[in-house]
Design a protein that fits this description.
The chain has 310 residues and is α/β, with parallel strands linked by helices. It has two domains: 109 residues, no CATH class; 198 residues, Glycogen Phosphorylase B (Rossmann fold, 3-Layer(aba) Sandwich). It is 30% helix and 16% strand. It contains eleven helices and eleven strands. The strands form three sheets. The chain has a six-stranded parallel beta sheet. It has a three-stranded parallel beta sheet with strand order 1-2-3, with no helix packed on it. Strands 6-7 form a two-stranded antiparallel sheet.
Length: 310
Amino acid sequence: MILDLNPEFGYELVCSAPYAYWAKKQGQEVKITTSIGMKPFYWFADEVIEKYTNRSVDNGNNGVQDLPNNWIHHNAKAVFGKDYSELNDKEKEEANGTLDYSQWIAPPYAKQFYKKGVPSLNNYVVVSNRYNLEHSEQPIGYFDIKALYDIFNLLTEKGYNVIYKRPRNTEFACDSNEEQGRDIKANVEGLGVITDFELTEHFDNVFLFDNIIEQIGSSYNEAQLNIFASAEGFIAMGGGSSILCSYFNKPVIIYVNTSKDIRPGYFYGDSYFNKLSNASIYPVVDTKAQIKVRGWRDYSEVYHHIKTKL
């Protein structure tokens, strides 16, 4: 098998890596040309060339068009033998998030990258945030400063350490939705204007992801896989980050705002989210339209799941 592709990160985790791993398990030689930094995700391949410095959202010309699953949100043709537009509402609900798994085995990242854990840190939950353009619109789906304060408090009060991850989008090959160089900020009484990174300094048991990577001393993605493999659970924004979190057999609370994964049934049944590992998935859907009408993001279900599922 020879693959040459540079799609969005989520597509690689769902459509490409499981196909490549399936081929390897069939005894095929596997050669991959992919984006910068992706080699650890294809540790099983015979050859990995990290070529692309940018990812493409053009799924007709970024390599996914050559995969058995070339659309991350469903494969209605494989599941029902007809186009998605021909399905009734019940069939659409069953199709959402469901792929063709005949040439698909999720790579066992949890087993491959599990070590003794992060140096000097155990019993931790990863909070995976983002602050990106969303289909050319300004960010609307993210954990703001107040939400992070509440999340950190809830987790530390339960006895967890917390690793906070929010990429600056300079660490890896980005797509057009990943804007660089901006911070999440708020004016906090008694502290003035602080960023999300600075907020972590006010908690004894909250640690910055970037600092942990420096301790591990390996590449960003290899360190990320090691960190995630030893986590007790995850709180993540919808998208590629939540997909990665779902590979590690631990509870994943996902705050979802946009994209096709707000469709009914997306996270249930035979959804790929339930095929990546034995992780328990707890989606919290708070759509962009609801947020715009309401004027604020509703994290209440996220807090509820932290209290009851972690």
